[in-house]
Amino acid sequence: MKQENIRNVAIIAHVDHGKTTLVDRLLYAAGAFRENQRVEERVLDSNDQERERGITILSKNIAIKYGDVKINVIDTPGHADFGGEVERVLNMADGALLIVDAFEGPMPQTRFVLRHALALGLRIVVVVNKIDRPGARPDEVVDEVFDLMVELDANDEQLDFPVVFASAVNGYARYSHDDENMDMIPLLDTIVNKVPSPDCEPSGPVALQICTVDHSSFVGRIGVGRLYSGTMHKNEQALVIKNDGTRYNTSIKQVMVFSDLGKEEVAEATAGDIIAVVGVEDADIGDMVTSRENPIRLDPIEVEQPTMAVVFEPSTSPLVGREGDIVGGRQIRERLLKEAESNISMRITDVPDSTGMEVAGRGVLHLSVLMETMRREGFEFQVGRPRVIIKKDEHGNKLEPIEEATVDVPSEYAGKAIEVFGTAGGEMIDMYQRGEDTHLVFKIPSRGTMGLRTRLLNATRGEAVMFHHFSEYGAYRGEMGHRKNGSMIAMDTGKSVAYALDTLQQRGKLFVGPGEDCYEGMIVGESAKEGDMVVNVEKSKNLGNQRSSSADKAISLTPPQTFTLEEALEYIEDDELVEVTPQSIRLRKRLLSAIDRKKANKQ
């Protein structure tokens, strides 16, 4: 039976193609805001990190009322590292809006999310966004999307996709890119007319599969998912079937449906809708909430496995506890296990020697977002260099994750970009001209992507645009070169002095400025030569009793190089750590004492 008054639609696209801005405009068009209401741009990017980075990290649910139809919209992340979010929430949708930039066309992440949407049989509506952008080529982009769908084995019905042209930032959608319409109504009409309504059985046994876990400090865990059949009532007696097959009875305390930007409590919800329930104590992704008399079990939600891992350890720095409130290993472990419950694409395990926890994720950005969240919560910890997860085939040969990287670079720098990839184990598989730019496609081991963006931007004077995403596990490519330059390592604990730094900046790049707390074993700079160098950053000028005829020259220090979390993780070597606190990101040696490091090198 079709629920004609409901449409469930996911919004999928490459990062920065305008998904979240488009959702804003749909909310305005449906009258979700008062005329005088002050609304932030990209209203769904509610998380601080999402606003700062300008990307969506967590998928969000909203509902738009358009005429008699309720449109449940799921905004998904566009970055490949958060693909786990996309894969599981697509299960809730019947159709997908594929947003494509009118200038750039389909990009690597477009292929990644579109493959999943087509495999689930979703109805695709193509939205060519940013048609007001200089150099926009909407008709060519539609042809490129068609070619991509053919390549991804779309069926005939999926290939007959409706197209809407839009400029989300200016708030209009059109059936043809050169008509004069100035509102979003064509897109809303297309969703209602082209996206199929949910096919379900409202009078059947209750069957809800949890796809997202929300948390409230008042009611605890909230399970969000699509109600596939039946009618869910408040205080309903239900059976929970966990992923591992264990079962227990529960009572549903609250039933909520999505309304505009929030949730609304209801007495009952019917099949086909996306709902949130309170009462499943340990709700996990993939759990079934179903009828006790006629239990229904759907296929478990499967997500691609992580490809990169990093070890979180309690900080052993001499400065530990000065900036963060939570420094204990037990608290860090509890926080990471809590993350594992809601983040299905992360795998968190104890390290064999119990010194820390190994966190495996999709990439450096995926891992660094967790670190950034924890440091903002007041945690202090240290992490080692990320390592790729190696597998073995049936013959015992080593396999490593291979990424597909695409680079758009001005043609004059194409040779340098190819050279940078060549030194990182990359292999070029495609190259073509697009206007004044050259489009390059490489297959490169995940190990080779560490620090690659920085080297590429340096080689192309900041002109290159690069994206990479996991492609497959391939043959191990052998050992790779490491950082050639050695480190400048502080010899003692104390504050850095401008006089000492002035001498040191002639011998390399500095990572600290004057007056900063340093300790023995902390990395304070990069030497211009190979090999580590132990330096004294506290050395001050000895004052004599003779007055100089020319006053001492003012010391002129170059501003120190600062690292973001991702840059720090990509910079360090195996014998180094990143110390993360709420206020600082410091680099240090794993063994702080110079004597201990010498002993370790001899062994």
Write the layout of secondary structure elements.
Elements: E1 6-13, H1 19-29, H2 48-53, E2 60-66, E3 69-75, H3 83-89, E4 95-101, H4 108-119, E5 123-129, H5 138-151, H6 156-159, E6 163-167, E7 172-174, H7 185-194, E8 207-216, E9 220-229, E10 231-233, E11 237-241, E12 247-251, E13 254-259, E14 262-266, E15 268-270, E16 274-278, E17 288-290, E18 308-314, H8 329-342, E19 347-350, E20 357-361, H9 364-376, E21 381-383, E22 387-388, E23 391-392, E24 398-410, H10 414-423, E25 427-434, E26 437-445, H11 452-459, E27 465-475, E28 487-490, E29 494-495, H12 498-504, E30 508-510, E31 517-518, E32 523-527, E33 533-535, H13 565-571, E34 576-580, E35 585-589, H14 594-602
Parallel strand pairs: 1-3, 1-4, 4-5, 5-6, 28-33
Antiparallel strand pairs: 2-3, 6-7, 8-9, 8-17, 9-16, 10-15, 11-12, 11-17, 13-14, 13-16, 18-20, 18-21, 18-22, 19-20, 21-34, 23-24, 24-26, 24-27, 25-26, 28-32, 29-31, 30-32, 34-35
Provide an overview of this structure.
- This protein has 603 residues and is of the alpha+beta class.
- It is 22% helix and 32% strand.
- The chain has 14 helices and 35 strands.
- The strands form 7 sheets. Strands 12-11-17-8-9-16-13-14 form an 8-stranded antiparallel sheet, with no helix packed on it. Strands 2-3-1-4-5-6-7 form a 7-stranded mixed sheet, with helices on both faces. Strands 18, 19, 20, 21, 22, 34 and 35 form a 7-stranded antiparallel sheet that branches.
- Strand 23 and strand 24 (398-410) form a beta hairpin.
- Helix 10 runs antiparallel to helix 11 (452-459).
- The model is unreliable at 34-46 (pLDDT under 50).
